[in-house]
Amino acid sequence: MNQTRTFLLFALLAVAYLLWQAWDQDYAPHPPAEVAGTSTATVTGDATPAATPTIANTAGTSEPVAAQLITVTTDVLRLTIDTRGGSIVRSELLKYPVTPRTKKNPDPAPIRLLDDNASDYFAAQSGLVSADGAAPDHRAVFQAAQASYELSSGQDTLNVDLTWTDPSGVKVIKRYTLHRGSYAIDLDQQIDNGSGKSWDGNAYRQLLRVDRPAPVYSNFLQRISDQSRYGFFGAVWYSPEQKFNKLPFDKFEKEPLQNQVTGGWVAMMQQYFLGAWIPPTKEADTFSTAMVNETGNAPRYVIRAVGPQISIAPGQQASSTAQLYVGPKLPDVMQTVAPGLELTIDYGMLKIFAEPLHWVLAQLDKLTGNWGVSIILLVLLINLVTFKFTNAQFESSAKMRKLKPRMDALKERYGDDRQKMQQAMMELYKKEKINPAAGCLPLVITIPIFYGLYYVLRDSVELRQAPFFGWIHDLSAADPYFVLPVLYTVVMLAQQWLMPQAAGMDPTQAKMMKFMPLMFAVIFLFFPSGLVLYYAVNGLSRLLQQWWIIRRSEATQAKTA
After folding, report:
1. Whether 243 and 370 share a structural domain
2. Between 434 and 50, residue with greater pLDDT
């Protein structure tokens, strides 16, 4: 197999993959954008036969009491808490701007993950339910001591208390604890039973969000260049037994979740960020999902974890704890937050290739401080490991280049008798000790690296808006001036010029070989610039290696003559 054919196969696989992704996004079944009517469905979260709480599947309320919004700021988060339910309705990730920082825009707005805007609605709710006692769910109105909280310099933790009191004597304090440098938030619902009877109920935590709005594109090429639309967007959950599971929004009604889980978590995830409720590791929770249809609004999707029954005698206290993670999908961080949470960095079937590539790049970045330089060093490392195989490939190519006049003579001798010509060529290869399949192994290595690195660049938040040098401010986005795709095209043309055309090649195939660099140029125009950087540097280093081997072969041939 010669190198031109391996490149052709590689190009066809890449094009087929992109077309399939675009088709899947545009024509695969999706839930309707808006459903009229109200939901009459309820979800029971009974962890024991003694309690059968019903949790309303709505973000609204029928209570006339006024609520207020509270702002909580740390060094990495700015939260907005609604005293109605004590729900976190906004979370701004202060270290992650929406657009890259530039001289014209040195302080861009931060990413807002949790959001109370209708088109991007995403809230983290929690509450208590009781079959026969007073309990504040996510619609009850709490009281707060102040309207804003801020983590002071030298302060490592920040507590935000919300209080709810019932005339029966039941009092609940919902306490959020935030930590410096952390996206993990501790929740403690403290229940003080000041009533004259036993209080029995359950604590629950849930995430409620709408599907992402459909993006608007001016053309097909702009559509396939938007890498964010290919990542998973929906609900996910984890259990020690069933591991990591995804539930797209269009399967909420067809495949509802209803599982008893100990040591797991529930989450809503998107390309780089996620929100996750994490119950205590030894607590048995009921995980469930529901779809809420509200009149005039887009459907909202709920994934919740309902805790076991809590029984509190009169005059006694108890509490229910959990942790909320709202932030970036950083593998080292999430491994310390909860088991399996790092699996939300979803590389799919190519995890076996993508994870090692990400690890190597991360180690190189620690040395260089630049992800682009790390990609270049990764190229050199891989080429060093595969040098023996690529060397054999180029030596075979150099020998074939030397034999081209003899192969042309065989082609002229046998004309259209392809079978005899192939037999004669194989005899010539055997005599000259040429292996025509020398290019196969580099292809076997190249394709997994290509797709693995593609997923790393697409889904690793560390590479989001990671600058290189000069005009490249984001290695996860396309090259704005197409310099790298053009460079790679020039390298391919040079490689094609140094490589002899296989004898007996069909004229149509020969034309495709000449057209292939242009096809790659179009494909790479819209790929992440970090991926194109990898292949431009890889192609350039192999071109130099190929040129050196050919020159050495010609020098040896001249010396022998």
Report:
1. no
2. 434
